[in-house]
């Protein structure tokens, strides 16, 4: 049985709009080289799957992710045309529908695949990451009153939402491709080496700064020091955490929430501080191992080592 999305009767009109949009995507032509490169890597990855049902399921997921990229390309091309901001908001609304359909599909079809635990766990991480960013984009950035905002505000919100979703689905695609084809080099996939480098360097700096604050609070657990830990931990969660691999999001939220809750409840937090610090060291090590930082590793070891 083919893994297909089946809309409810109330959704037929919206699905028709989505199909019309698929026939008019100039952004797809402008990104022909990238689209070709992605499809080549997808074809290679699918060759590692023997089970017909799993193959169909993964193929459908890849197709839906590529559809999201098409929408994002279209929004990006229109972003500098201020008279099309409302049109971009409409595309975002349709995109939200498509993404939620994809999440429903993954959550009902892909989280329990007998004999494919690693793949199921990967889908679980992808679902968690996409859900996190969808909530952030459509419940914090593009809220229901966005159409009544000024042009600069609307432009800024759309631009930020576009960046969040682009990063989200690039990481989702890379994660799914790599679990099937571990030899894949993500640097060769997207033409965004400088952006990936910037994100990785930012992560190193943010994790290093957070770890120093945690270690200081361990040594001198004053009220001000503990409050700084809370503020910095929440700041990282709401900001730079998006650049971590999806598999690390839950771990960070688990450790940071336990620590923040303990501090805010005036409980003894020394053990949790130590556990959180150890976890941050592991994260920092993972980030430094990224391929995009390979040529910088010796200099980073000398100049940017985490203070412990």
Description:
- The longest helix is centred in the middle third of the chain and has 30 residues, at 151-180.
- This protein has twelve helices and no strands.
- The chain is globular and about 55 Å long.
- Mean pLDDT is 81; it is low at 1-28 and 297-305.
- With 308 residues, it is mainly α.
- It has helices at residues 12-22, 26-30, 32-46, 52-78, 85-109, 117-141, 151-180, 193-219, 223-238, 246-264, 270-288, 297-303.
- Helix 4 runs antiparallel to helix 5 (85-109) and helix 6 (117-141) runs antiparallel to helix 7 (151-180).
- The chain has two domains: 9-188, no CATH class; 193-303.
* SS class: mainly alpha
Instruction: Return residue spans where pLDDT drops below 50 for at least 5 consecutive residues.
Output: 1-28, 297-305
Give the strand content: under 5%
Question: How many structural domains in the coordinates?
Answer: 2
How does the overall form come out from the CA principal axes? Answer: globular
Major sheet attributes = none
Order of helices and strands: HHHHHHHHHHHH
Count of extended strands:
0
N→C terminal distance: 55 Å
* Percent of residues in helices: over 70%
- Count of runs of 4 or more consecutive helical residues: 12
Mean pLDDT: 81
**Radius of gyration over C-alpha positions, nearest whole angstrom:** 21 Å
Q: What does the secondary structure layout of this molecule look like, with pairings?
A:
Blueprint lengths: L11 H11 L3 H5 L1 H15 L5 H27 L6 H25 L7 H25 L9 H30 L12 H27 L3 H16 L7 H19 L5 H19 L8 H7 L5
């Amino acid at each position: 049985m083919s893994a297909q999305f089946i809309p409810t009767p109330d959704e037929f009109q919206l699905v028709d709009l989505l199909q019309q949009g698929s026939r008019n995507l100039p952004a797809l032509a402008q990104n022909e080289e990238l689209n070709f490169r992605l499809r080549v890597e997808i074809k290679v990855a699918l060759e590692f799957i023997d089970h017909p049902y799993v193959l169909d399921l993964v193929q459908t997921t890849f197709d839906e992710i590529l559809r999201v990229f098409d929408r994002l390309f279209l929004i990006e091309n229109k972003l500098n045309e201020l008279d099309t901001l409302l049109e971009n908001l409409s595309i975002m609304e349709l995109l939200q529908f498509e993404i939620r359909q994809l999440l429903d599909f993954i959550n009902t079809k892909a989280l329990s695949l007998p004999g494919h635990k690693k793949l199921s766990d990967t889908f679980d991480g992808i679902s968690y990451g996409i859900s996190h960013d969808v909530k952030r984009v459509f419940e914090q950035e593009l809220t229901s009153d966005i159409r009544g905002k000024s042009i600069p505000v609307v432009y800024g919100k759309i631009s930020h939402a576009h960046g969040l979703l682009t990063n989200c689905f690039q990481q989702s695609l890379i994660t799914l491709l790599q679990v099937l084809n571990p030899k894949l080099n993500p640097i060769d996939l997207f033409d965004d080496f400088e952006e990936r480098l910037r994100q990785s360097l930012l992560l190193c700096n943010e994790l290093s700064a957070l770890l120093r604050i945690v270690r200081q609070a361990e040594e001198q657990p004053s009220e001000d020091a503990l409050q700084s830990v809370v503020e910095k931990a929440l700041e990282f969660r709401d900001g730079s955490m998006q650049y971590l691999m999806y598999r690390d999001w839950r771990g960070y939220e688990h450790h940071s929430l336990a620590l923040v809750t303990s501090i805010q409840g005036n409980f003894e937090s020394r053990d949790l501080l130590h556990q959180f610090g150890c976890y941050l060291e592991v994260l920092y090590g993972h980030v430094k191992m990224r391929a995009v930082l390979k040529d910088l590793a010796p200099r980073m070891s000398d100049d940017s080592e985490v203070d412990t």
